[in-house]
Amino acid sequence: MRWRHAVRATFTSTTAIESSPLTGKVISNSRAPQIAHEMLVEYFMALLVIMGLTAPVDKQSRRSSQYFGHLAAAEELSNLIPDNYDAIDPVFDNSTNREIIAALGTTARLHCRVRHLGDRAVSWIRQRDLHILTIGIMTYTNDQRFLARHIDNSDEWVLKIVSVQQRDAGVYECQVSTEPKISLAYKLVVVTSKAQILANRELFIQSGSDINLTCIAPQAPGPYTHMLWHKDTELVSDSARGGIRVESEQQMKTSNLVISRVQHTDSGNYTCSADNSNSDSVFVHIIKSEQHAAMQHELGSRLVLPPLPLLLLAVLLVVLLGPTSSLQPRTPLSTR
Q: Structure pTM?
């Protein structure tokens, strides 16, 4: 019934412009009544289209029709609106994602869809302290990272959190101002993504062989992740060096760095970085063949006990654990 009262109130305010306060007759030589009537028709046509009670009609068709009279048009529009239209309760569209994963420092968006909202308001509330963040498109917090977004005539109300911090993790409620109020919970998970090179922190590669480094970033946000390789402070490229190949799978969030026939100049710190993720590094030493053999010999010699200490130990054991008779004092000979 509220819709019908609104129709009559709107019509009354419009016809008041058209009627002369002296004679009560319609002032036909004024543009104000025509403009007011056209505005009223435009308003109700748009309203009927939004409610799905009629199909859109172009302006030419509406203007050529004399179907919309003054009071008759308003009454007919009012009759088309069902008596129980205001009784339709708002409902949530549960097709939206309600567990949002955002990497530290990125922007998180929580999407809430409400059908049949009517004249109710949508609010976003942080559950841990029951702080009202937004009502409609207005923000009610001093933290300017929180924003409300809404497109006119849409069912979607978005809470936008810029530069997500670890403290932002938790549950947020999309609440509708019905009586009693209804709400839908959304969980925000904040992760610290880190790229990882699948190798030891320090590598010794023989000159002339190949390097194959693999980097992964499984927790990087988004369906696709851009990954880069740096040697020391320079971006790895195949420009002058040649024999360098970078193979990345953005959807799989992996990247392989292949360097063929490494040289001494290829020694250095190799870093893998991914979007919105901490980087990872390994240090590569390029050694010659003689150095490689010497290192292997040194490593093996550490595992063998030197022969001289071993001989001394054997002699000591023989002395201590020899026949017990040799260690006992002899009985003195009789003097008789």
A: 0.51
